From TrEMBL:
It comes from Flavobacterium endophyticum. The gene is rsmH. This is Ribosomal RNA small subunit methyltransferase H. Its EC number is 2.1.1.199. Belongs to the methyltransferase superfamily. RsmH family. One of its GO terms (cellular component) is cytoplasm. SUPFAM superfamilies: Putative methyltransferase TM0872, insert domain, S-adenosyl-L-methionine-dependent methyltransferases. It comes from the Bacteria. Keywords: Cytoplasm, Methyltransferase, rRNA processing, S-adenosyl-L-methionine, Transferase. Specifically methylates the N4 position of cytidine in position 1402 (C1402) of 16S rRNA.
Length: 298
């Protein structure tokens, strides 16, 4: 089984505009597809650092003296690059979301296709799991999770039903969760709504929005002027943060204007939004929602 089929492989790596002697970071190493392509374009003095918090990804480490794999969350990119005596880099690649491997291993609990314990942790070192969110969060927090991260208008009703169900017994696995929420899953839309519910829980478990914000802010600090940022996102919440940060250097509001009325922004956008073509989607259905944005530090 393919560990992870890299999405927009050529376009994402092309976006980094790789210098043979440069220093690059692939913060979502996974199966190593993007990293292998970067290494092909690096010369003997180039360096590549990979980050992946998932212990399963360590088995894919590349045997190349130019490559270092760091088993940590990329929210700590600055700290761990400093540990390796790297203060600035020429390019950073991020392929956000869940890897094919994580979706396909039933016991990880990421997929609606399998009956599994409620887990959804991208790193098994995390204390909080999907079980904790579903069984221990109060009504207000459940409502927040489903509304903010699942964009579900009926989040209050979903939260109430979960609270009522767990009074009788804990909700331990995906089949129990589906049964509890069955009234919200009409046959013609059940997969879509379940995907939104799972997405909401997964984002909360892994603090994905906070992690993305911290990563983007640190990327700006460690990229050299002229350095490139190449980011693939898979849902509107992620893409909105990436788009706003690239455009304004902030997640909310507008940057201040200078005396002449011009914005002072840290990045310039390179090219237009890139999405997979029909041929790639046919080969890899998970690419269908991918959006690639490329920026250069000014």
């Amino acid at each position: 089984m393919e560990y992870h089929n890299p999405v927009l492989l050529k376009e994402t790596v092309d976006g980094l505009d790789i210098k043979p002697d440069g220093v690059y970071v692939d913060v979502t190493f996974g199966g190593g597809g993007h990293s292998k392509e970067i290494l092909k374009r690096l010369g003997p003095n180039g360096r590549l650092f990979g980050f992946d918090q998932d212990e399963d990804a360590l088995a894919n480490a590349l045997d190349d003296e130019r490559f270092t794999l760091i088993n940590e969350n990329f929210r700590f990119i600055k700290r761990f690059l400093r540990f390796h005596n790297v203060k600035s880099v020429d390019g950073i690649l991020a392929d956000l979301g869940v890897s094919s491997h994580q979706f396909d291993v039933a016991e990880r609990g990421f997929s609606t296709r399998f009956d599994a314990e409620l887990d959804m942790r991208m790193s098994q070192k995390n204390d909080l799991s999907a079980y904790g969110v579903v069984n221990e969060y109060d009504e207000a927090n459940l409502r927040r999770v489903f509304y903010d991260y699942g964009e579900l208008k009926n989040a209050p009703a979903i939260a109430r039903v979960i609270l009522e169900a767990r009074e009788h017994e804990p909700i331990k696995n995906t089949e129990q969760l589906k049964a509890v929420l069955s009234r919200f899953l009409p046959a013609h839309k059940s997969n879509k709504i379940l995907a939104q519910i799972y997405q909401a829980i997964r984002i909360e478990v892994n603090q994905e929005m906070d992690v993305l914000k911290e990563f983007l802010e640190q990327s700006l600090e460690i990229l050299k002027p002229g350095g490139r940022l190449s980011v693939i996102s898979y849902h509107s919440l992620e893409d909105r943060l990436v788009k706003r940060y690239i455009k304004n250097g902030m997640f909310e509001g507008e940057p201040e204007r200078d005396f002449f009325g011009n914005f002072s922004v840290p990045f310039k956008t390179i090219g237009k939004l890139i999405v997979p073509d029909d041929a790639e989607i046919r080969i890899n259905n998970r690419a269908r929602s991918a959006k690639l944005r490329i920026a250069e530090k000014i």
